[in-house]
Design a protein that fits this description.
Two copies of one chain form a homodimer. Chain A is α+β, with helices and mostly antiparallel strands and about 350 residues long. In chain A, about 25% of the residues lie in helices and about 20% in strands. Chain A has a ten-stranded antiparallel beta sheet, with helices on both faces. In chain A, strand 5 and strand 6 form a beta hairpin. In chain A, helix 2 crosses helix 5. Chain A starts with a strand and ends with a helix. Chains A and B meet through strand 1, strand 2, strand 6, strand 8 and strand 9 of A and strand 1, strand 2, strand 6, strand 8 and strand 9 of B.
Chain lengths: ~350, ~350
């Protein structure tokens, strides 16, 4: 019997239907996903590689562990580098000029679009990096968030990572992105509204309630390192969706920098488990944060593998059919060495 | 300069960014989309083909133009046939048994899932059918909607069509689907709320306002046959998204059966234009209807081509980047003979 489970944040009902696509269910269980080759481009023509700094806009942040004369900005020697996107989705220069167009609403496409080059090495993906190498990426996110927040035109800063062609990644070289928008995405507004509603009605944080129930239950827990818990959400939209949530209430990512060490560690564990379970799947990673300092928010990371065309599509209106019960995905991921 | 346009129904901002992906933009313009072969299965092993009726559940509706002794139910001779899905997403038998699971909400996966086999011919897609052959499909939708509405467990009836593998179609044989759910999908609730909000504030129907503005403007109109207008919506989520809207207020699809003739005609025109423009693209077609008779609703059909991996993905939280301005898509589609 299929199940209907309501996502407490979006109020959407998700169908958990293992019988609907038995082949796909099996695929998730035995880790036989069709491999999705990365965008292949040799380092010489990769604009994210060292020695090719001239092909990118000037860097806005970089980590150069061995400072010295060879470590000038926009030259090799960096371990991590943040640059504006060469073909940005939104443009930094200009005014919003919001206006009506008859019944419609229009603004100029003002925003920022940056690329965090996570490593100088062309061939090492985030799952190959040690926690000690991932932690500086989190600090780079923080630095860029703090800087971009000063631009009063921006209402939300989306931090995300697309890995693999199926997830839409345009580079094989490991990278994340930040997009600053003059509006708060509707999905974020919905989530914040759910957190506020729960606080108003019950005087508690919805995500704290969820983290507590998940750790007590254990059924959907993939990993718990004392500071963060990783679990497959109750109403997972897609197979092997995994969330990483701070165990104690933590409104904003930027303010939790004291725990970037354990966050890097659990992120590394989860990425290696997913890679082993699903043959290096494409995935999308999103950092959920609040538009501005909000005591009701509880930041977290969502990772959704993109398993290719054989997964049934949503049939419209945002209803998802997930053939892999999150309890099965969690059990499978728990058993994998990482 | 990219543009930000707000979808008046979902309140989501869409980024129209032709510079972001110039190759894709060009692709849309010149119709050079990579072909997406249909699920290939010979008629002999296609369970939707005549002579294979034994491999499907018993039909719930059929059109047999030449009635006679050879036209018994579940035997060949039909022009159109509706059957329960052999592997349904939701099951008809049982109780909903809604219950809490700690902080979460759960129901049994009760619903109905039917397949409308649109033609007896294995090789003719909907774009190959004449308006006179499409009109009975619309009447079949109506018959099934009227019948399924009598089951009080169901709160919404989703009518949709997935064409092509990229859209998730599981058969190459032309078909549509109906899924009855015990909940109203969130996307439908959002749309109905926008229609109610506009009516409350302005005493007018939002979709009537839009249809009027589009026909006066003409910029985004693809085709207008006096009863229906087809246009690319102002805040198109994806390239070549096209809506078909009744020009005079029409709350419910089931009640508009007097105009299924012109609706079939414009649907045929649009499907042939899209096929010619984009090399037979995969697409998803959704019928937007209301959960129950609602004078504020204005039914319509949404068609979204699925153009494959080269289209940039949403970066999370439901924000879409569309590289093809709907005005360009409309102009291109208008110029195509159909």
């Amino acid at each position: 019997m299929p199940e209907l489970r309501k996502d407490p944040f979006s109020s959407r009902w998700i169908v958990i239907a293992p019988e609907y696509a038995p082949g796909i269910y099996e695929l998730g269980r035995v880790g036989a996903a069709v491999a999705d080759p990365l965008f292949s481009r040799p380092p010489a023509s990769c604009s994210l590689c060292p020695e090719n700094e001239v092909h990118t806009p000037p860097e806005v942040y970089a980590l150069r562990p061995h400072d010295g004369p060879a470590a000038a900005a926009n030259s090799p020697g960096w371990a991590l580098r943040v640059i504006p996107h060469k073909f940005p989705v939104l443009r930094v220069e200009g005014d919003l000029s919001p206006r009506a167009q008859g019944v419609y609403d229009h603004m100029n496409g003002i925003g920022a679009h940056e690329v965090i080059v996570e490593t100088a090495s062309h061939d090492r993906q985030m799952a190959d990096l040690s926690p000690g190498e991932i932690e500086p990426i989190l600090h780079a996110f923080r630095q860029r968030l703090l800087d971009l927040r000063r631009d009063t035109r921006f209402r939300y800063l989306s931090v995300f990572k697309a890995h693999g062609q199926r997830a839409g990644a345009g580079f094989g070289h490991s990278h994340s992105q930040i997009i600053a928008t003059p509006f708060v995405p509707q999905g974020v507004l919905d989530k914040i509204a759910a957190l506020h509603g729960h606080r108003d009605a019950r005087k508690r944080c919805l995500m704290c309630d969820i983290a507590r129930q998940e750790t007590e239950d254990g059924l959907r827990v993939v990993h718990d390192n004392g500071a963060f818990v990783a679990f497959t959400p109750y109403a997972s939209r897609t197979p092997f969706e995994t969330w990483i949530v701070p165990l104690s209430h933590a409104p904003m990512f930027e303010d939790d920098n004291g725990r970037y060490g354990p966050l890097a560690t659990i992120l590394s564990v989860i990425l290696r488990k997913l890679r082993a379970a699903l043959s290096d799947p494409s995935y999308i990673l999103n950092l959920h944060n609040a538009p501005c300092a909000d005591p009701d928010n509880h930041f977290h990371i969502e990772i959704r593998p993109v398993l290719g065309r054989s997964i049934p599509v949503p049939w419209g209106s945002g209803t998802y059919v997930n053939p892999t019960p999150p309890e099965d995905a969690a059990r499978y991921l728990r058993e994998i060495e990482s």
